[in-house]
Write the structure tokens for this entry.
Amino acid sequence: MKLLLTSGGIANPSIEHALVDLLGKPIAEANALCIPTASYGHPWCTPSNAYRFITGQSPARMCDLGWKSLGVLELTALPSLGKARWEPWVRAADALLADGGDALYLAYWLRESGLSALLTKLPELVWVGLSAGSMVMTPRIGPEFVGWKPPSGGDETLGVVNFSIYPHLDNKDLPDNTLANAKKWAAGLNAPAYAIDDQTAIKVVAGAAEVISEGKWQLFTP
């Protein structure tokens, strides 16, 4: 997979240009599936969050970019359908748009649905994450971000990349998301970690990470 890991969606021209580069075509010629699953696992979210994301009414731009086609891929439904039904939908997509919410809930359903295993076989597919939708691709989220608790416990996510992400740095609606708190969070991980604001994204191709930013970010190394 190619990854575009954002804190606040496609928030500025630099991040949008990175998305087009990963797609290899204009957004208007690309097919996307949006994944609202993470929002159901977060205590601050309600069904209206999922609706706003799907319908392009979220303040974080993702579904409202003018895609050629846009569908909804709800991960909790996939096990009841069987891979023969849903796998062709994923293979036909150019991008998967993963909403924010609870990263551990999203990781659980990516594994349970079988989608995480399929993603490793689709090198041209672009995963576009929003907040938890980005954090899910990291090895750990840290205890500070644990909300929904998976049956196995812990704070481990998929580990597709080798760094962790602290999103929404200096967001006025999240006063605890300061650089000082991000530094404390990173110290507990003992691994590379980025704190990124909503004007920043991390582009990952073939394991190489590149920060795309019109805002603030910080890399912490152990």
